[in-house]
Structures are given as structure tokens and as C-alpha cells.
Automatic annotation (TrEMBL):
Organism in which the protein naturally occurs: Enhygromyxa salina
Leader sequence segment: 1-23
Record-given protein name: Multidrug resistance protein MdtA
GO cellular component: efflux pump complex
Homology family: Belongs to the membrane fusion protein (MFP) (TC 8.A.1) family.
Regions annotated as coiled coil: 112-175
UniProt domain Multidrug resistance protein MdtA-like barrel-sandwich hybrid: residue ranges: 80-207
InterPro entries per UniProt: MdtA-like_BSH, RND_pump_MFP
Annotated segments matching region Disordered: 25-46, 378-403
Cited SUPFAM superfamilies: HlyD-like secretion proteins
Underlying gene: mdtA_1
């Protein structure tokens, strides 16, 4: 049987190899002399821009404080006994000096009455003794000297007894005040811990009274805030927690003044205590209520001021600028802004010192006030990529960005 020839297959393989080689060889195949049509140049990427600026950036550090009454007291009686009068309940407003509680004082009243009667009797005896002493002195030539001296001594003893009885009466009257409880200041009854007819012991708390018209705020803050706050500074107060909704009835913000700063850290919490006084009355400033306290922190780009920017490197602040937060490109290793330099994107690594609202205080090599930074479209830009600025959030136009 004839064997099939393999020559046609070999010729086909050689032809295919020749075509592949010709296609891979420069200058081979259809060409216009440049190896194919030229690639079209990529158009500039449209981006929104803004200008970096100098000036002031106002940040706010917020901490939660507590409203406290300037005056509050747990009221108790100085004596024990059965409550005979109880005039108030929780929530009642009372005036200074108003009678609140009275306990059974019959025994003390009887003691006072007995002391008064004894003094009256002693005064009668004293008057009689003085008359006898005066008569004896007048009859000095007739009466023995011992009798005259005895009458004078008796008068002196009765005078001393009268003094003792007067002191006992004063003590009995003072003791009677222990059976009465009056309001030491005007305020609202915050707690009632006894009822009519109940027996109370001396010193046992019966009522709690708070003055709601005068309050202060105590707030604990991080020690880093200390260089930024001084006595007399103004801060902002806002309702915290469940009281936030009360802002619908009254303004949800109030001003307060820094009254005092404790110059040492709490050994347990390592925080600094600051005392504030509200300068605006609000119904949500209730004793015991939590409030948010906003401390303004001011940074000046291009100027490091002593006492204002402590805690942030002064040299860095002096070289810093303020840019929109949208200009920041956050990376895994660093943060950058894209500067428009001669119509091309130029990434600049920056350090973020502070941020407030929609702006940030940053510093970076060659970054100065007036620099044009990309605020939208910056995530997809490559170094050196042509860009076409369009009007941004601050109104920087294409023409302004190019100049």
C-alpha cells in the first residue's frame, strides 16, 4: 500500500512561520513607515481646584461635663423626735427662712419654762438679799460685822445664780431651734426622706434642697487642652444625651465662662478639671444634667503663637497652610495633596496638624499660600498627568488656576 506523503504538511508549516516572522519584523507588512497609526494624546483630566490659604483655623474639642448647683444641702434637724409639721414635697420651691419641718418640742419647751420660772424666783431672792445687805450696811454700828458680811455674800451668790440661769435660758432657746428646720436659701426641694408622724434622729437627713437659679458646670478634659484654655475664656454648651431634643424649645447652645482650672491631674482618671459658669440661662441647664462643652482651639497658618499652638510643632505651624479637606488624599503610608504645577498634577506629601469643619491645617514641601490644589478628581491622578482645572468650591476658575 502506498504511504501518504508528508510534504504538503511541511510546506504549510513553513508558510505559516514565514508570515509570523514577517509580521514581527519592523518595517514589514502594511505600514506608513512608522509601524502603524500614531497613538492619540490623552486629553487633560478635568478637576476641581481651590487655593491654599494662610489665616486662622478654629477647631473645637468637645468634652462632656455635668451641671451642678452652686448651692445644695442635705437638711437635718439638730434634735430627735416625732415630726409634727412637714410643709413641703419634692419639686416645691421655697424661700430662704421658710419653715419646712417641725418636730415635737414639748419637752424642750417645758425645760425652757422651768428655767424662766427659776430665774424669776432667783431674781426675787436677789432683790431681797440686796435690801438686807443695804440695811445691814446702814446699821453697821449696831449689827455685828459677821452678819453684815453674810448678807453681802448671800447677795453675791444670788447674783451669780441669776447669771447661770440666764445662760440656761439662752441654751434652752437655742435648743428649741433644733426642733425647727427652715430653708437656708431659696431653692427647690429635690428630695424628701421622711413623713408626718415619723420619728427622726438628730442629724438624720429629712430634705434635700438645691438652688436651681445658680448653676455651674464641672468638666474633666484631657491634659493636652491645658495650654489652650485660660480663666475668662468663652466656651459653648450644648445639651447631651437625652436632653438634646430640648433644643427645639430653647436654643440648643449657650455660652459659658471659664471660672477656674484645677492645676493638677486627677490621680485616677489623669484628667484636668475645669469649672464653668453659664452666661446664658437655659431650661436644659438642670443640676445633674450632662452637657457637651466645646472648647475653641485656634491655629494660625503661617504663624506660631506662644501659648496657642503648643502641642503642635511651632516650625511646622509657621510653614502650614489651610486647604479644603477634600484636597487630602489618604494613603496607606502617607497623606498627600495634588498641586497643579504648570498644568500637571504634582503630589505633595503633607502632615495634617488639625482639622475643623471642611478645612485642614497641613504642611508639606513647597506648599505655600496661593498654591492650587485639586479638591475633586484627585484620587485618580498620576504624577505629571495633565489636568484642566474647572471652577471649584472656592470659585477658583481655570484661568485663575493657570496663573
Amino acid at each position: 500500500m502506498p504511504v501518504p506523503s508528508s510534504r504538503p504538511h511541511a510546506r504549510a508549516l513553513l508558510t505559516a512561520l514565514a508570515l509570523v516572522t514577517a509580521a514581527a519584523t519592523p518595517g514589514c507588512g502594511p505600514s506608513d513607515g512608522e509601524g502603524g497609526p500614531p497613538q492619540a494624546e490623552q486629553p487633560p483630566a478635568p478637576v476641581e481646584v481651590a487655593r491654599a490659604r494662610a489665616g486662622e483655623l478654629v477647631d473645637e474639642w468637645v468634652f462632656v461635663g455635668e451641671v451642678r448647683s452652686l448651692r445644695s444641702a442635705a437638711l437635718a434637724l439638730g434634735a430627735g423626735g416625732e415630726i409634727m409639721t412637714l410643709e413641703v414635697r419634692e419639686g416645691d420651691r421655697v424661700e430662704a427662712g421658710q419653715l419646712l419641718v417641725e418636730i415635737d418640742k414639748r419637752q424642750a419647751s417645758a425645760k425652757l419654762s422651768a428655767a424662766v420660772s427659776t430665774r424669776r424666783e432667783s431674781e426675787r431672792e436677789l432683790r431681797q438679799a440686796r435690801r438686807e445687805a443695804e440695811r445691814a450696811a446702814a446699821l453697821g454700828d449696831v449689827l455685828p460685822g459677821e452678819e453684815i458680811e453674810r448678807d453681802a455674800t448671800r447677795a453675791d451668790a444670788l447674783e451669780a445664780r441669776k447669771g447661770r440661769l440666764s445662760a440656761e435660758i439662752r441654751a434652752a432657746k437655742a435648743q428649741l431651734s433644733d426642733y425647727l428646720l427652715t430653708a437656708p436659701f431659696a431653692g427647690v426641694v429635690a428630695g424628701r426622706y421622711a413623713d408626718l408622724g415619723q420619728w427622726v434622729d438628730p442629724g438624720e437627713t429629712v430634705l434635700e434642697l438645691v438652688a436651681t437659679d445658680e448653676v455651674e458646670i464641672l468638666v474633666e478634659v484631657r491634659p493636652e487642652l491645658a495650654p489652650h484654655v485660660r480663666v475668662g475664656d468663652e466656651v459653648k454648651l450644648r445639651p447631651a444625651g437625652g436632653l438634646a431634643g430640648l433644643g427645639r424649645a430653647q436654643p440648643a447652645q449657650a455660652a459659658a465662662e471659664v471660672l477656674g482650672i484645677v492645676p493638677s491631674l486627677d490621680p485616677r482618671t489623669r484628667t484636668l478639671k475645669i469649672r464653668l459658669r453659664p452666661t446664658q440661662a437655659r431650661t436644659w441647664l438642670l443640676p445633674g444634667a450632662p452637657v457637651e462643652v466645646g472648647f475653641p482651639i485656634r491655629y494660625r497658618a503661617g504663624q506660631a503663637e506662644a501659648g496657642q499652638n503648643q502641642g503642635v510643632e511651632g516650625a511646622a505651624i509657621a510653614q502650614a497652610v489651610i486647604v479644603p479637606r477634600d484636597a487630602l488624599v489618604l494613603g496607606a503610608i502617607d497623606t498627600r495633596v495634588i498641586v497643579v504645577d504648570e498644568g500637571a498634577a504634582k503630589p505633595v506629601v503633607v502632615e495634617v496638624h488639625a482639622s475643623a469643619g471642611d478645612e485642614a491645617l497641613v504642611s508639606g514641601a513647597g506648599l505655600s499660600p496661593g498654591a492650587v490644589v485639586v479638591t475633586r478628581g484627585n484620587e485618580r491622578l498620576r504624577p505629571g498627568q495633565p489636568v484642566r482645572p474647572i471652577e471649584g468650591g472656592d470659585g477658583t476658575s481655570e484661568h485663575e488656576a493657570a496663573t
